[in-house]
Each structure stands twice: as C-alpha cells, then as structure tokens.
Automatic annotation (TrEMBL):
Keyword Nucleus in annotation: yes
PANTHER family found in the cross-reference section: COP9 SIGNALOSOME COMPLEX SUBUNIT 8
Entry's localization field: Cytoplasm; Nucleus
Ranges where the PCI domain occurs: 26-199
Name the record gives this protein: COP9 signalosome complex subunit 8
Record-linked InterPro entries: COP9_CSN8 (IPR033205), CSN8_PSD8_EIF3K (IPR033464), PCI_dom (IPR000717)
Pfam families per the UniProt record, alphabetical: CSN8_PSD8_EIF3K
Species in which this protein is naturally found: Aspergillus niger (strain ATCC MYA-4892 / CBS 513.88 / FGSC A1513)
Keywords for this protein: Cytoplasm, Nucleus, Signalosome
Family of this protein: Belongs to the CSN8 family.
Domain of life (superkingdom): Eukaryota
Presence of keyword Zinc: no
GO biological process, one term: COP9 signalosome assembly
C-alpha cells in the first residue's frame, strides 16, 4: 500500500495514531525513502526533514535500538545535521545514552530546546529511559543509597538522601523497600526469563561456551 506523502501534518498523524513504539518505528522507517528524496531538493523542506529525522531518531531510542539510532544520524542529510539545532541535540543525547551518562541524559532531555512538535516523544523517551534504568538498577543492586538511586533516575539526590516522601514513594511504588534506620533502599529483585522461542538458542550458546571453557582448561 502506497504511503500518503510525507508532510508535517502526516507526520503528526503518524505519531498520534501509533499504538506502540514498534508501530511508530516501522511506519517512520517506511517513510525514509520519501525523506531521502525530499532532502535532494536543496534548501527546501528543512523544517519537515528536521522533524522527521528527529522523530525517527527517538523512535529508535524508544526501542533501545541505540546502534540503529547512530546509523540513522549517519543517513541524515549531513548539511542539515550540521546546521539544525534539533538534530544536533539528538547527537548530544545519543552520546550521553551511548556512554551511559545518566545525569546528562536527563539534563539534555529536560533543558535543551526541543521544538513543541517533538515535546511528546521527548517526554515519552524520558519516561522510557527512567523505567529502563530503574530495572537495570534493580538487577545490579541489593541495596543502594537514596542519593545514588535518585541520580540514576533523574531525581534530586539531596532530597532523596533526606528521605523525601515523594521520592521514596516512587521507589516503593515499584516494589522497593526503604530501610530508614540504615538509610538504604532495597530494590525489588528482577528475574529475567528466557522467552520460549529463545530457549533452544540459549542452550546451544551455553553448550558452545562450555566447550570453549573446557578447551582452555
């Protein structure tokens, strides 16, 4: 089925109608050839292309496709990338996400100037990043100081260390426990299950690693 022509109105409709991040990503992927053709018209459609590529970039991040997000920046019209503030912000964000600089990620999302049309997807990614990081911390720590946990989640470390009820409630709502006497948060353990369709592959990889280990010993 032919896609409607790419326009700001159509792009807004695509974002609004997408039921999942995957659906958004796939639809925007289908539009990349149209964006490429528009980019060949020098000096035209800059605002539309900026919005399209910025949205497409965030659709990658919402699926944790960090490598694909990086490749997307390489496929963008390079002249536009070098001169457009939104796309430059995307590059800055990508570096922070890639380097796992949590505080910087939140700072970029909250403080850099993002166009009004991008605000919903920027906020969606902030929520996604916070949720993802919360799970990572839950896997990595049995106990953690509130200030450290708050830093990971873009919250106020000083207020968290003082046991701010609003901040503590965010952790408690996720199943964490708060040991006020010891000043420690205890994350809810997360057990990752291997999907059934991946069990055979997982077992095969385990066998290969075991063989490698035996050869080395």
């Amino acid at each position: 089925m032919d896609l409607p022509p790419l326009s700001q109105e159509q792009l807004t409709a695509v974002v609004a109608s997408a039921k999942t991040p995957t659906e958004l990503y796939e639809t925007l992927s289908d539009y990349e050839s149209q964006a490429c053709l528009l980019s060949m018209q020098k000096g035209k459609h800059a605002e539309l292309l900026s919005l399209y590529y910025s949205t497409y970039f965030f659709s990658n991040l919402l699926l944790d496709k960090t490598i694909e997000a990086r490749l997307t920046t390489q496929r963008m019209p390079q002249e536009l990338l070098q001169n457009d503030s939104s796309l430059q912000n995307c590059l800055t964000l990508l570096r922070a996400v890639w380097q796992r600089k949590y505080e910087q990620v939140y700072k970029i999302l909250r403080e850099l100037p993002w166009p009004e049309a991008l605000q919903p997807i920027v906020q969606s990614y902030e929520s996604h990043f916070q949720e993802k990081t919360l799970k990572e911390v839950s896997r990595a720590y049995e106990a953690i100081r509130p200030a450290a946990a708050a830093t990971y989640l873009g919250l106020d470390p000083a207020a968290a260390q003082q046991g701010d009820p609003a901040i503590m409630q965010k952790f408690i709502a996720y199943g964490w426990t708060w040991d006020q006497e010891k000043g420690l948060l205890h994350p809810k353990p997360i057990v990752d299950e291997v999907p059934k369709k991946d069990v055979r592959l997982y077992n095969e990889l385990s066998e290969v690693m075991a063989l490698i280990g035996n050869r080395r010993s």
